């Protein structure tokens, strides 16, 4: 059953790509290296949509939001399949928007892949996104994409608490099951979270709190929480490594990152969720306005929605829930239905982002320099 | 007056008669003007322009800015104090004590010079962090290494060699007869040390202190990794550029960092180093008698041994980090990290970085020697300026060089004659060269001062052209200095982070920034493997350069510049 579905999807993708390529003018000559690679694997080449993509050439530069190893695996897989020379830079959401804004006239990047869609929405409101919806995005559920602001979801995952059980035991604290549990004085200096200015993960937590407590309530809470925070990190997942190594007891990160760190390190990490509700991210991809190589970017975006591309995640222990219903969901993934979610509207979250971040910088971080690591 | 001008003009004309040599001079001087003066000027003009006014307002209003400046000063002073103390101790033990393991101590104190950034910080976090192998598992403490104390510890270990080498040279050059005179007049050992030796070393101590202060201020890697929430200027600048992508703020903060750094550097360079009591008479003045007091001797030896052991532990632990599964958590052996660096994703970083450094190295060394020759042997208008400028590349913090490069070269200049350089590999090479030239110049100047111009004059009067003389007489004589320049440039380039972090492109992977990526996301194993490979590349290259260029100098003199 599954097999035939994949075949159908494959054919569908193939025809879409064929159509896309046919509409392109003066195709570039196939690179000799690709021709050679094709000659070596003629059987595999027949079904692969990659064959026709030779007409699009590199280099492609991806602004990559998730963790380094996933970025590496994705770019390598894409380059293998298409022959398009691909490189990436990993940037957190806030950094990404700042960078794109600064180089709006001559962007370095072609496509923004990964990271909570709030960031892509914010970039869109700033005129930094060229809406492009891959044709195969039809497969993606309606609530996981937005045609108007030009992004398509590639994975989803819920925000959670990632605790090191050994440290919790030492401190005599249970794994937190509500946002208020984090205010426990015993956890002083034992919680890590990223800085919302740079990290999309941390912004997801900020907006979740806004939904739960109203804007003023959220900032009151974050100011109280501040005394328990050991370090505000730059990237969203970094607090998880601190929990894994026992530097802190609790990290506020996406639950899938916690599972990843547990699998990778063997540390005694436990995932828990706030009972009153938690937020989630839709990891999104979007085409960057004035991209130097939009053709290759579109090939990437189409490819990134295919089950085989989405399956790359699990090979590097990134257990987000893939958006394409045809992608095999890894057993380790935490499905959103298991968790009590707030009604998180990532369009509204993205539109509110700039203003909320400004208030966050002033009130919570008191003009402190944003963090470095 | 007109006579003066005529004289100067004649000198200038003489310069142009040097054949291809004058071309070399011209290229070197243009290089300094274009890649050192111009970017710094750009920082000045941006940070003093009207666009920067809101940035100043914001910075002055922000309570955190003053905190950052205060943090930076505390870190600088702490490192300068501790580093000078350790450097002094090591130099003193080396020169004045008759104890075993002196060669070992010497080698240990050279180790941090070739070490990549982050190495010490990572190791210290895993060893002494909250869940550190020593602090937690051995001593049962939950010690918080992130912050000022951790920073001073790692910076002291990273930079004390500067103090050590400065003081070592100075102590060796002290005239022992003064000491003997004091002793024969009946002064005790402590009194001799306090009233004779120490005063003579004051310039060296001051110079080490100031140099360490500047080095600490300029360092980026360690504050990024072990600073925690303790922000200093260098890391604040990094945040402005990488996190906020605000070039104006970057330029303003650079200026704030640049002014004290330059001031102190030039106080050190022009004032302290001139007030030296070291006199080289050339006559053997007897030898310094080793310190006799057993109690003092073995106490100092023990302290030295403990510090050396700490350094060995820290560096040795990096190798451990590279071959275990999860450094600090899971000590199962694995080759995964080395596979990642040598065969996997990291292999491109390895070849790219080595290639770019290898291109920059000979350029920097050759220009360094040419500039040194120009400064020492030729008289012309602006000679002091050339001398001054050539030192700037070292005195200016790397982050500032990086921002200057972005501001200066992020669009075509000179009417398109020079294309946009940012985003290319060329700009990385240029940054490497700018950072490496000063050391080459300094070793060149020292070497050229040492031999008598009569040799070159003889060559000239026998009818050789300037170019021939330079090639046949000068070059062979300065070869050891040239080698020093090569080794220093290569090491400096391949381990540099702060100058190129804003310049790296997705297409060219640089090992030091890859180490940052890996360490920042907690993958210390890969980062450690990168560090080990980097150290291996540096050591191999030094060996290779010896084989190719050849040298009669000892291994210790090569780094002792």
Keywords:
heterodimer, A: 373 residues, alpha/beta, D-Maltodextrin-Binding Protein, domain 2, eleven-stranded mixed β-sheet, 14 helices, 11 strands, globular, B: mainly alpha, MetI-like fold, 2 domains, two-stranded antiparallel sheet, 25 helices, 2 strands
Explain this structure to me?
The complex is a heterodimer of chains A (about 375) and B (about 550). The termini of chain A are far apart. In chain A, about 40% of the residues lie in helices and about 15% in strands. In chain A, strand 4 and strand 5 form a beta hairpin. Chain A is of the alpha/beta class. Chain A has 14 helices and 11 strands. Among the domains of chain A are: about 1-55, no CATH class; about 155-280 and about 335-365, D-Maltodextrin-Binding Protein, domain 2 (3-Layer(aba) Sandwich). Chain B has about 550 residues and is mainly α. Chain B has 2 domains: about 1-45 and about 355-505, Orthogonal Bundle (MetI-like fold), CATH 1.10.3720; about 50-275 and about 290-335, Orthogonal Bundle (MetI-like fold), CATH 1.10.3720. Chain B has helices at about 1-15, 20-45, 55-60, 65-95, 100-110, 120-130, 135-140, 150-175, 175-185, 190-220, 220-225, 235-245, 245-270, 295-325, 335-340, 345-375, 385-395, 400-410, 425-450, 455-460, 465-475, 480-495, 510-520, 525-550, 555-560, and strands spanning about 325, 330-335. Chain B has a two-stranded antiparallel ribbon with strand order 1-2. In chain B, strand 1 and strand 2 form a beta hairpin. The radius of gyration of chain B is 25 Å and the shape is globular. Chain A: It comes from Pelolinea submarina. Chain A: InterPro entries: Ferric-bd. Chain A: Pfam families: SBP_bac_6. Chain A: One of its GO terms (molecular function) is thiamine binding. Chain A: This is Iron(III) transport system substrate-binding protein.
């Amino acid at each position: 059953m599954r097999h035939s579905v994949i075949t159908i999807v494959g054919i569908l993708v193939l025809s879409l790509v064929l159509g896309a390529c046919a509409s392109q003018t003066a195709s570039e000559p196939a690179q000799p290296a690709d021709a050679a690679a094709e000659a070596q694997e003629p059987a595999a080449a027949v079904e692969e949509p990659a064959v026709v993509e030779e007409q699009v050439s590199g280099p492609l530069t991806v602004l990559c939001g998730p963790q380094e190893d996933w970025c590496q695996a994705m770019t390598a897989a894409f380059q293998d399949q298409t022959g398009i020379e691909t490189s990436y830079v990993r940037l957190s959401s806030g950094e990404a928007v700042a960078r794109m804004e600064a180089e709006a006239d001559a962007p370095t990047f072609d496509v923004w892949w990964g990271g909570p869609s709030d960031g892509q929405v914010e970039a869109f409101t700033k005129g930094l996104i060229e809406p492009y919806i891959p044709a195969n995005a039809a497969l993606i559920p309606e609530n996981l994409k937005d045609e108007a602001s030009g992004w398509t979801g590639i994975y989803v995952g819920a925000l959670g608490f990632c605790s090191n059980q050994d440290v919790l035991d030492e401190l005599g604290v249970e794994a937190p099951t509500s946002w208020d549990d984090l205010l426990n004085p015993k956890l002083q200096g034992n919680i890590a979270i990223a800085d919302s200015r740079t990290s999309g993960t941390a912004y997801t937590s900020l907006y979740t709190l806004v939904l739960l407590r109203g804007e003023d309530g959220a900032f009151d809470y974050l100011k109280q929480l501040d005394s328990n925070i050991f370090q505000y990190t730059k990237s969203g997942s970094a607090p998880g490594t601190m929990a894994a190594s026992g530097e802190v007891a609790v990290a506020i990160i996406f639950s899938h990152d916690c599972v990843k760190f547990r699998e990778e390190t063997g540390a005694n990490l436990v995932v828990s969720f706030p009972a009153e509700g938690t937020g989630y991210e839709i990891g999104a991809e979007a085409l960057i306005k004035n991209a130097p190589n939009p053709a290759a970017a579109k090939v990437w975006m189409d490819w990134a929605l295919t089950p085989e591309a989405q399956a790359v995640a699990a090979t590097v222990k990134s257990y987000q829930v893939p958006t394409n219903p045809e992608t095999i969901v890894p057993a380790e993934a935490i499905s959103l239905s298991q968790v009590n979610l707030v009604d998180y509207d990532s369009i509204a979250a993205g539109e509110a982002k700039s203003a909320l971040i400004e208030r966050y910088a002033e009130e919570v971080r008191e003009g402190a320099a944003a963090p470095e690591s | 007056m007109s006579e003066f001008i005529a004289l100067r003009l004649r000198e200038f004309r003489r310069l142009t008669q040097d054949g291809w040599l004058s071309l070399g001079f011209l290229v070197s001087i243009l290089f300094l003007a274009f890649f050192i003066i111009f970017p710094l000027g750009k920082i000045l003009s941006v940070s003093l322009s009207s666009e920067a006014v809101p940035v100043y307002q914001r910075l002055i209003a922000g309570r955190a800015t003053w905190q950052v400046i205060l943090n930076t000063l505390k870190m600088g002073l702490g490192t300068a104090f501790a580093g000078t103390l350790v450097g002094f101790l090591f130099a003193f033990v080396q020169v004045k004590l008759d104890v075993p393991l002196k060669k070992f101590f010497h080698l240990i104190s050279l180790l941090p010079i070739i070490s990549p950034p982050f190495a010490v910080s990572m190791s210290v976090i895993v060893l002494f962090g909250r869940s550190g192998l020593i602090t937690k598992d051995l001593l049962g403490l939950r010690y918080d290494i992130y912050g000022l104390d951790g920073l001073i510890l790692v910076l002291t270990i990273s930079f004390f060699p500067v103090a050590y080498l400065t003081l070592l040279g100075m102590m060796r050059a002290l005239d022992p007869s003064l000491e003997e005179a004091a002793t024969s007049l009946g002064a005790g050992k402590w009194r001799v040390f306090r009233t004779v030796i120490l005063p003579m070393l004051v310039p060296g101590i001051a110079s080490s202190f100031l140099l360490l202060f500047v080095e600490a201020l300029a360092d980026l890697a360690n504050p990024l990794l072990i600073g925690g929430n303790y922000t200093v200027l260098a890391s604040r600048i990094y945040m402005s550029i990488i996190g906020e992508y605000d070039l104006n703020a970057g330029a303003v903060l650079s200026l704030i960092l640049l002014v004290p750094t330059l001031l102190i550097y030039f106080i050190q360079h022009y004032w302290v180093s001139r007030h030296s009591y070291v006199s080289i008479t050339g006559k053997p003045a007897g030898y310094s008698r080793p310190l006799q007091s057993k109690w003092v001797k073995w106490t100092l030896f023990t302290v030295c041994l403990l510090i050396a052991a700490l350094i060995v532990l820290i560096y040795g632990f990096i190798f451990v980090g590279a071959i275990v599964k999860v450094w600090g958590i899971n000590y199962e052996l694995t080759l995964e990290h080395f596979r990642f660096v040598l065969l996997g994703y990291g292999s491109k970083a390895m070849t790219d970085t080595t290639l770019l450094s290898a291109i920059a190295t000979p350029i920097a060394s050759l220009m360094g020697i040419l500039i040194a020759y120009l400064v020492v042997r030729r008289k012309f208008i602006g000679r002091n300026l050339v001398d001054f400028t050539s030192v700037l590349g070292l005195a200016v913090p790397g982050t500032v060089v990086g921002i200057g490069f972005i501001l200066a070269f992020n669009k075509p200049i000179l009417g398109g004659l020079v294309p946009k350089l940012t985003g290319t590999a060329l700009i990385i090479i240029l940054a490497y060269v700018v950072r490496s030239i000063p050391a080459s110049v300094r070793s060149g100047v020292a070497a050229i001062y040492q031999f008598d111009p009569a040799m070159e004059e003889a060559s000239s009067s026998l009818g050789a052209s300037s170019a021939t003389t330079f090639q046949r007489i000068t070059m062979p004589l300065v070869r050891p200095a040239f080698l020093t320049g090569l080794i220093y440039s290569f090491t400096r380039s391949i381990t540099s982070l702060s100058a190129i972090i804003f310049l790296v492109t997705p297409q060219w992977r640089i090992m030091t920034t890859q180490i940052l990526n890996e360490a920042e996301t907690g993958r210390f194993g890969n980062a450690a493997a990168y560090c080990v490979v980097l150290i291996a590349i540096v050591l191999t290259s030094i060996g290779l350069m010896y084989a190719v260029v050849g040298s009669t100098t000892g291994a210790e003199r090569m780094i002792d510049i």
